[in-house]
């Protein structure tokens, strides 16, 4: 078994660590590849390069798991919605054509994303992954829906009225859920040993819609992953009640964001916990980083805990600080 799975199965409580966005812009070796590959989607669909990028942080830091280099927005891309990444702005999605989406069948979808699955197969064979997990992932249905309707990050601008059309939302959520299941299944078949569900915009929904749009569709995915005998990690960013989320959605692991009080989580939640540290601490001093890493490790000392951040590694992070972080976690007693 791998260290992460031993931790999840309560067999042991090793000091294990991987980071969201561990492969990415803070690494000079990633930036070198990226500068020659200006189309981000094409880069994700280049099986040789995406496998190489996946392994970059493992070679440097010896993380306990790899996460496949890809993006949650490959799903709208495979559903025929144009996805572009604009420098210093983020994703821009094209027009949404529901009738066209209805015409897409599973084989078309799988074929379009086959480079992702081939990259997973290729990465699995590398010696860096011996006895380590390869994490596959999807965006949660709600977060994918937000991007498909808003066509850009809601952080930039959240278009009014997009959440008014309940019929459209329900219709789209069903299609998204169907293809996310296929994407999960394909990743597991190719060799992904854990699935993480990113719900970056879970906090955007409120009131009754939260149950219908966030909890229910995610629970359906979680049950699907479980039916494949694969552990699932959920990362619902920005929600207020983690206990309720865990009770209803019931993943093996809950990944917490940096706004949550870790003490309260430790007291109220019994499943394996992941993450929490504010990625900004990697931009400060070593002593401040050390104190804050210790805080999380102390709070979760008697729990099953996977060290990670409360969101992805920031692009302006010094790789030396990441190296120091890994050392802190590994040497913690
Ligand atoms: O974690 C990893 O190292 C694996 C790869 C990965 C990427 N994106 C690569 C990436 C993963 C797991 C994601 C998930 C993802 N993608 C999420 C969920 C997590 C989160 O950040 O909330 C979201 C919302 C997206 C959509 C997306 N992709 C955005 C909003 C952006 C632009 C802004 C940003 O955060 O970088 C991307 C681009 C992207 N995805 C980059 C990388 C390495 C940067 C590409 C570049 O400009 O070089």
List the main descriptive attributes of the protein structure presented here.
single chain, 333 residues, alpha/beta, TIM Barrel, 8-stranded parallel β-sheet, two-stranded antiparallel ribbon, 10 strands, binds coproporphyrinogen III
CATH architectural group: Alpha-Beta Barrel
- Secondary-structure element string: HEHHHEHEEHHHEHHEHEHEHEHEH
Query: How many strands, what sense, and barrel or not for the largest sheet?
Result: 8 strands, parallel
Distance between the termini: 22 Å
Q: Which structural category do the helix and sheet elements fall into?
A: alpha/beta
Ranges where pLDDT stays below 50 over 5 or more residues in a row are none
Portion of residues in beta strands equals 5-15%
How many domains is the backbone divided into?
1
CATH class: Alpha Beta
Explain what the structure shows.
It contains 15 helices and 10 strands. The model has no long low-confidence stretch (mean pLDDT 95). It has 333 residues and is α/β, with parallel strands linked by helices. The chain has a single domain, classed as TIM Barrel (Alpha-Beta Barrel). The strands form 2 sheets. An 8-stranded parallel β-sheet has the order 1-10-9-8-7-6-5-2. 48% of the residues lie in helices and 13% in strands. The relative contact order is 0.14. It binds coproporphyrinogen III (CP3). Coproporphyrinogen III binds at residues 20-25, 34, 40, 67, 69-73, 85, 90-91, 137, 153, 198, 200, 312.
